[in-house]
User: Fold this.
Amino acid sequence: MSGSKTVPMLMAVVMLFAIGAAADLAAENTESNLASWLKGVWISGGGTYTIYTDQHYFVVSLQGDSASPNIYCGSSQLKFSSRGLARKQVLRLRQFPGGEMDAWKQDIFTATGEEAEFLIDTALFQPGVCNIVEGTIYDSITEETAEYILLATCNGDQIKVFANGIYAYLPKGGGEFRSYRVEKFE
Assistant:
């Protein structure tokens, strides 16, 4: 009798292990897809140039003209996760039309001259929203398909990253601003 109970019990354990392994693989694929689909050089028609690497993010954007510039330059440490994208800004230059230039930087080097490791807490990704904690922006994944990953970012805006090298910024108030990957990093 005990032998007849052992087989179903063993099958249940094997099934639970397989389900757990499949969930881990799906999470690993999500993180890998997000990184692979973003890494590279991106250009938008509006004058924005963005670079994503394994661990860094750089953006330069100029709109308007010298009389009324809209300028944004930034660099961040970056971490990809199965729950989203975390970035910690370390340099920022920002000027809205008619406004003053906001400029700051943060030293990210250790006493030995090495870049400090960027550690994140994946529990801080909150579904459907951008969460900012101690200077780190946690953009959470809200939807994922084989064609795109949708991220919630600041101010209710969203970012849709397509597998085919298109990046759509979707402001909460409507519209769509596209960037195109012109160089892909492996």
Observations:
- The chain is about 20% helix and 45% strand.
